[in-house]
């Protein structure tokens, strides 16, 4: 451990992972290469747009009217959603949910939000105190504008983004999900809690970022500012970076924690919390569940669980978003582990189209669900075989007229490899709703059937 408390061996591993992700990396200051093209260039372009479009309004006279407020917020939205840089990329620091919240602010709440942004931009004091004041003001504006639910992460990103644009060398972007992974990896504890951001929390994250900056300098990597540190941590610690050679977006990093046993264990812990109050330090930090639940793979009296507490228990954090708009959100974590996302009435929530490409879908989802909900439970029971009916798994996932796809996935060799099984026998017509596949789990002597 360093004197600050950073696990230097863990940081060494992140540096190794970064270099493996970008084999052509020479320096953060290089004007070519995978890092520059994939991470730095479009963020620099976004900052230039912000400084050109938004900054003049932040530096203008204090907002007094709704018209002025909407002008400022609309300019911010325009910068956040504009395609920039050589690749025509839209910034990905503030999610579409943040855009949605900003777009809905009207009247006095919009005026207060715009004023809070102006005060944050012109504040010359410590960044921690400035972002805490901003977070309190913005939380109040959002709440009065009917946008009060689940906005702590959005506000933290928005406020810290403004600071990082204003002071690239002295302020760091805070995406709470990322910092949950960073703090766990480097400090073995959490920094941010499920509340509006506090000055001491931000200052601690800033100190960590500056320590990482110094280490990257010592490694001869020549970081330019704390944007390079943010990018470095996003690539290496989030477990979601798509270009990583050893951190596939659905399999590695934090996602590796989400095994079937770990998820079912978290459900057991949640049952103990409901029955006896156990694990209140985690589960007590979550409010009433809303739109996203997850179905257990085991026979339970109550088979559906809210996504946020289950993921929070596994990650040992209460800084969790419950949906699946990003790969680090709770429902996305569980979905990508092969669990079925449902509503509170145990009805499947279909995978969103196109813009949610980070979610497992198609044959990959069918195979993962077949393994988790059919094959593994049958093995747990010691069954000799297991039968999967096309219509049943199709409807459980919430698919629409995809019976041929289900049949193909169940019959294919990829599932046999994934589950270590021999080819199944087929019952019924080919690619029909009534088609079923029978997989042998034990041979006649009682031993497990394995293909490898």
Question: Could you walk me through the main structural features you see in this protein, from its secondary elements to its overall organization?
Answer:
By secondary structure, the protein is mainly alpha-helical. 52% of the residues lie in helices and 6% in strands. The protein is built from 19 helices and 8 strands. It has helices spanning 8-21, 34-53, 55-58, 66-81, 96-104, 107-122, 127-144, 152-166, 176-186, 199-218, 226-237, 260-276, 280-283, 307-315, 330-335, 362-381, 390-397, 403-411, 413-419; strands spanning 83-84, 89-90, 293-295, 304-306, 341-342, 385-389, 425-427, 436-440. It has a 3-stranded antiparallel sheet with strand order 4-3-5. Strands 6-8-7 form a 3-stranded antiparallel sheet. The chain has a two-stranded antiparallel ribbon with strand order 1-2. The two termini are 42 Å apart. Residues 243-253 have low confidence and may be disordered.
């Amino acid at each position: 451990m360093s004197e600050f408390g950073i696990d230097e061996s863990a940081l060494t591993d992140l540096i190794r992972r970064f270099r493996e992700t970008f084999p052509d990396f020479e320096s953060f200051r290089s004007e070519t290469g995978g890092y520059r093209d994939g991470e730095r260039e479009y963020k620099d372009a976004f900052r230039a747009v912000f400084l050109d479009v938004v900054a003049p309004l932040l530096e203008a006279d204090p907002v007094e009217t709704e018209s002025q407020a909407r002008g400022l917020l609309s300019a911010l939205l325009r910068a956040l959603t504009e395609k920039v840089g050589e690749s025509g990329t839209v910034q990905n620091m503030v999610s579409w949910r943040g855009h949605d919240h900003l777009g809905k602010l009207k009247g006095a709440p919009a005026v207060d939000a715009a004023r809070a942004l102006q005060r944050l931009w012109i504040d010359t004091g410590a960044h921690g105190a400035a972002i805490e004041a901003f977070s309190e003001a913005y939380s109040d504006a959002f709440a009065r504008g009917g946008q009060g639910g689940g906005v702590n992460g959005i506000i933290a990103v928005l406020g810290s983004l403004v600071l990082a644009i204003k002071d690239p060398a002295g302020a760091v972007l805070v995406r709470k999900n990322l910092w949950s992974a960073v703090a766990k990896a480097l400090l073995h504890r959490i920094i941010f809690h499920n509340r509006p951001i506090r000055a001491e929390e931000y200052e601690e994250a800033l100190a960590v970022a500056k320590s990482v900056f110094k280490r990257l300098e010592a490694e001869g990597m020549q970081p330019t500012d704390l944007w390079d540190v943010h990018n470095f941590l996003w690539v290496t610690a989030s477990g979601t970076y798509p270009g990583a050679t050893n951190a596939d977006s659905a399999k590695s990093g934090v996602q590796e924690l989400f095994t079937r046993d770990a998820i079912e264990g978290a459900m057991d812990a949640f049952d103990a919390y409901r029955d006896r109050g156990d694990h209140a330090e985690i589960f007590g930090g979550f409010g009433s569940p809303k739109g996203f639940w997850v179905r257990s793979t085991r026979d339970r009296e109550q088979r559906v669980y809210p996504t946020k507490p289950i993921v929070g228990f596994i990650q040992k954090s209460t800084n969790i978003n419950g949906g699946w708009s990003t790969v680090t959100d709770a429902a996305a974590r569980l979905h990508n582990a092969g669990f079925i996302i449902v509503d509170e009435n145990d009805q499947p929530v279909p995978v969103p189209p196109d813009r949610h490409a980070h979610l497992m879908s198609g044959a990959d989802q069918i195979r993962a669900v077949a393994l988790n909900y059919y094959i593994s439970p049958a093995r747990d029971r010691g069954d000799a075989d297991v039968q999967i009916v096309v219509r049943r798994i199709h409807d459980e996932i919430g698919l629409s007229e995809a019976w041929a796809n289900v049949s193909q996935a169940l019959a294919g060799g990829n599932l046999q490899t994934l589950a270590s099984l021999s080819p199944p026998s087929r019952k019924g017509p080919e690619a029909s709703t009534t088609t079923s596949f029978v997989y042998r789990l034990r041979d006649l002597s009682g031993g497990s059937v394995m293909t490898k």
